[in-house]
Amino acid sequence: MVRRAVDILAKLPDARSLSARLRRCGVAVAAALALVAMPSVAVPAQEASEQALKVAFIYNFAKFTTWPAAAFADPSAPVTLCVVGKHEFGEAFQGIEGKSVGGRSVVVKYLSSYKGKDQCQVVYVASSEKSRLAKIVDVAKEAHALIVSDTDGFVDGGTIINMVRRADDRIGFEINARVAGESGLKLSSKLLNLAERVVN
Q1: What is the chain written as a DSSP string?
Q2: Which is nearest to 127 in space by CA: 86, 81, 166?
Q3: What is the pTM of this model?
Q4: Residues 6 or more apart from 17 whose CB is under 8 A from it?
Q5: For residue range 96-140, what is the model confidence (pLDDT) as tens digits?
Q6: 133-179 pLDDT, tens per residue?
Q7: Number of domains composing the chain
Q8: CA distance 55 to 22
Q9: Cβ neighbours, 10 Å, residue 98
Q10: Comparing C-alpha atoms, which of 178, 114, 115, 179 is closest to residue 141?
Q11: What is the per-residue pLDDT for 23?
């Protein structure tokens, strides 16, 4: 799973430095994954590694997305990533705060609910928000937000990119190109080509 995730990230242009960092820590990650068979303390190590990879994916999704000018309050406004609902990422998102996307600094916010006034350019929707997904999608479209998730079925419910665990334990992602277009977003063709499935 870890190697597959790193390989996908490496295929994205300008993602080489991130891929290199992930490869350098590969031995430690592999060791953490090997501990899965051991009780209790092994599970958090595995989860932390997977969550860090998912955050790396989300950061790269943002890098290969183009927003309309209306998505930002002004030319110097940051790219704000809003994490909505009860998530399992711990402090993993701290690793991308302050990084750059399209010349804008990344800011992370944690929200119990999502409203248009929150000024989010990227919205990660946790599985806890399943009953509110349709409303979140409607608000995000109006705000030109990139909606990201990692819950089965969410891409058909309107999230633009959904990370999935394949049968062979690899991490991939699906893209809802129709909702991206309705949101006024342009996704890189390179990103679309790497998707496991594209909904048009």
Answers
A1: -HHHHHHHHHHSTT-HHHHHHHHHTHHHHHHHHHGGGSSTTHHHHHHHHHHHHHHHHHHHHHHTEE--GGGSSSTT--EEEEEESS-S-TTGGGGTTT-EETTEEEEEEEESS--GGG--SEEEE-GGGGGGHHHHHHHHHHHT-EEEE-STTTTTTT-SEEEEE-TTS-EEEEEEHHHHHHTT-EE-HHHHHH-SEEE-
A2: 86
A3: 0.79
A4: none
A5: 999 999 999 999 999 999 987 889 999 999 999 999 999 999 999
A6: 999 999 999 999 999 999 999 999 999 999 998 777 778 999 999 99
A7: 1
A8: 12
A9: 11
A10: 179
A11: 45
Query: How do beta strands 161-165 and 146-149 pair?
Result: parallel
Q: Check if the beta carbon of residue 158 is closer than 8 Å to that of residue 147.
A: yes
C-alpha 2: how far from chain center: 16
**Residue in the block written with tokens 């800011």:** 107
Q: Angle at Cα 71 formed by Cα 63 and Cα 113, nearest 5°?
A: 90
The rounded distance, in Å, linking the Cα atoms of 46 and 143 is: 35
C-beta separation of 114 from 134 below 8 A = no
Q: Specify whether the CB–CB gap between 139 and 118 falls below 8 A.
A: no
**Strands of 146-149's sheet in order across:** 100-101, 104-111, 79-84, 122-125, 146-149, 161-165, 171-176, 197-199
Confidence at residue 5, expressed as pLDDT on a 0 to 100 scale: 53
pLDDT at residue 26 is higher than 60: no
User: Residue 82: which domain range?
Assistant: 2-199
- Rounded to whole angstroms, the Cα distance separating 161 from 159 reads 6
